[in-house]
Amino acid sequence: MRVRSCIFALAVFVMLTPLAAYAQFRVDTTRTGAKPAEDTAHWHMTRSPTTAIILSAVLPGAGQVYLNQWWKVPIIYAGIGGFLAGALLQNSRYHYTADSVNNQLARGEVGRANAYANAREFYRDDRDKYYIYAALMYIANILDAYISAHLFDFDVSDEGSPRKMLNQPYSPSTLHLRIGFHTTF
Fold first, then answer.
1. CA-to-CA distance for 34 and 23, rounded, in angstroms?
2. N or C: which end of the chain has fewer CB within 10 A?
3. pLDDT one-digit tens code per residue, 1-28
């Protein structure tokens, strides 16, 4: 089953590769009448990636506010807060079962103590996972601020795009596969 899913993923990748080729077209400014790109030797970014990283590291979401991406802040706080809430819940369950293990051992009931010990280890592992998820969300917040600062000045307008140059509407739902054989005698 795993081999089939790998083959399927490879086939999808091979079929979708031509779609990425649209990004490889170069605009010929002599034919389109467009002005050549200006000299970029003195160009500088309007938003500093370093500032965005520092702001996001000190206060999660502050880098996104600096980059005018306010809508990401509730997502960041919901993610980090949710994972920390899960960690605190599992921590309280861990301590409860740890006390239960000690109580059962004091009574001399080893069988029940082992059952509680297994539950205690489950809650401890689950608590640690939530802490790791919260840390990964914090790191993702910093990485998002860094990448967004680099892309802040990126122009995504249709001017000079390959789709406009080809004068063909792009539809991701249509995928063309052409196979041809050429023989000469």
1. 18
2. C
3. 676 666 766 665 555 555 555 555 555 5
Instruction: Report the predicted TM-score, pTM, of the whole model to 2 decimal places.
Output: 0.62
| Two tokens, residue 129 | 């996972």
What does the CA dihedral 50, 52, 54, 56 come to, rounded to 10 degrees?
Answer: -150
Alpha-carbon distance 43 to 41, whole Å?
Answer: 6
Characterize 81-108 residue by residue with b for buried, 16 or more Cβ atoms within 10 angstroms of its Cβ, and e for exposed. Answer: eebeebbeebbebbeebbebbeebeeee
End-to-end CA distance of the chain: 45
Residue with tokens 């702001």: 55
